[in-house]
């Protein structure tokens, strides 16, 4: 753990216990949080999904490196459910954690065994990369916009849980021990009804290494509003990754204050171990600009945030 011995880590955790509600006996177990991508108390990894208009991925990485004076610790890539199972990701720096956001399919195709070969292929390919990988399969399952959400699967979240557990077993059988499993609901449920609460989709502690959450300030929500429900529900048991987040503009100089609030929120929430910015002005079907450098004030706030010790994971 970057030069910290076990006693030092436990000491740091003991300081965090009051803030995140960890019982003393849980502090030692928390040292192992994160599975193949370890959680480091007091240090959040900072990364992004990076797709900038008019620039290649490599050029985009270079721009952010120049602007921020640091590297990305996590690179988020989106993989389709089938037809693309790479053997490597040469554009992703070797010292960065690859986060694979893997699309899903209907629960029946997984639980019936029809997708076993596809799952096994992805497991084998990711295992072969021999690098730490965060696998975020079937994210935002409590929404109503993906094939793998409850709304499109008979309003039966139990099917998602069964699918997840089957995939987890297949990955284990195919030696994908370098894969940390990231369960990532949306910050709010759509529709917001009892059967669709995010808790109903949770696969169980034995099947999850990190709990993720997607949340943006589309309606001027604060970071506290977006992330506290997930942190409160799981932060005592699992490390939290803000797996998709960013600010859009709500008028002149509106991004910078939100970024400052995000920085303060993460600083005050010890269970958050990673933040992944949705860094793009190139999202298909929308003109929204999520880039943190869309104006000088926003870039200054973002630069200040990512250079803080809290974001040095």
From TrEMBL:
Keywords, alphabetical: Glycosidase, Hydrolase
InterPro entries found in the cross-reference section: GH, GH26_dom, Glyco_hydro_26, TAT_signal
Residues annotated as the enzyme's active site: 140 (proton donor), 244 (nucleophile)
Start and end residues of each GH26 domain: 25-311
A Pfam family matched in the record: Glyco_hydro_26
GO biological process: substituted mannan metabolic process
Superkingdom to which the source organism belongs: Bacteria
GO molecular function term, any single one: mannan endo-1,4-beta-mannosidase activity
PANTHER family, A to Z: GH26 DOMAIN-CONTAINING PROTEIN-RELATED, MANNAN ENDO-1,4-BETA-MANNOSIDASE E-RELATED
Family: Belongs to the glycosyl hydrolase 26 family.
UniProt name for this protein: Glycosyl hydrolase family 26
Organism lineage string: Bacteria, Bacillati, Actinomycetota, Actinomycetes, Micromonosporales
